[in-house]
Design a protein that fits this description.
Layout (H helix, E strand, L loop, with lengths): L1 H27 L8 H20 L9 H21 L4 H19 L6 H18 L6 H23 L7 H29 L5 H18 L4 H11 L3 H11 L12
């Protein structure tokens, strides 16, 4: 519990810019403003803050920081997707950018433990979600892209849930945060699809953006103990020395006290 408290105390101040910028966004733009440059700016600032949050917890080319790099890639492509979705006519392109983000997040979460029952449950929900929305899309291309995107986001969700550890430790806390973030991402994107292809939702911008920011926050928060998890994983594969060297090169391995290596 001490490690959890120390990590939260360290992470808290670094999340203040995200929380403040998200609050300002909702105050200034309760409704979506397509093509509005100020809307674009204030929409992107919270994600930029999360990018800074991930970088502040360490970043290098060593294996110990592989998780951070993949989450960072996901955030960067999400930022590009945010920019695309502000402008009319770029919805499909935005979906493709977010599809890359989902691949990066799933890659970060990894394939161990597999937990096929969770995967099967996610697959059934994915099929139901797709059939309830995308058959109403006005183009065949959108339906196919929607099919691929639905598959990718639910794979990401499956992998996030599969790695949850229900234990009183920092790893249990951050893995749960990642899973909650993945679930909120599914909710946010489902609301976008329903609002676009089925029926307009009341307060759509507030619902979509609040769940979206919550999703990215949960996923970004999961980097807190990622280096330590990676060291354990590599140790099991006989790469303990290399992992420890990578971790020592970038900090002392304790959450909140890592530095970025250049």
């Amino acid at each position: 519990m001490t490690h959890i408290c120390n990590a939260l105390k360290s992470a808290g101040p670094r999340l203040v810019p995200f929380l403040k910028s998200a609050a300002i966004f909702f105050i200034l733009f309760p409704e979506k403003s397509p093509g509005h440059l100020l809307y674009l700016l204030f929409k992107c600032i919270p994600i930029c803050c999360l990018i800074g949050f991930v970088i502040s917890h360490g970043l290098s080319l060593s294996d110990a920081y592989a998780y951070n790099r993949r989450i960072l890639i996901g955030l960067c492509f999400s930022l590009l997707g945010d920019i695309a979705l502000v402008f009319d006519g770029f919805f499909l392109f935005g979906m493709c950018l977010f599809a890359v983000a989902q691949v990066a997040y799933a890659w970060a979460f990894g394939m161990s433990p597999l937990r096929p029952r969770v995967g099967l449950s996610a697959s059934l929900v994915a099929v139901a979600a797709y059939l309830s929305v995308f058959p109403r899309a006005n183009s065949v291309l959108m339906r196919y892209v929607g099919l691929v995107y639905t598959a990718l986001i639910f794979v990401m969700f499956w992998r996030a849930v599969a790695r949850v550890r229900f234990e009183k430790s920092l790893g249990g806390c951050t893995s749960l945060a990642g899973a909650v973030g993945a679930a909120l991402f599914v909710v946010s994107d489902f609301c976008i699809a329903v609002n676009k292809f089925v029926t307009p939702l009341p307060h759509a911008n507030a619902v979509i953006m609040s769940t979206y920011y919550g999703a990215q926050l949960g996923i970004a928060f999961s980097v807190l103990d990622s280096q330590l998890d990676r060291v354990v994983s590599l140790s099991a594969k006989g790469s303990d020395n290399d992992a420890k060297k990578g971790l020592l090169k970038n900090g002392n391995g304790f959450p909140g006290k890592r530095v970025c290596a250049h």
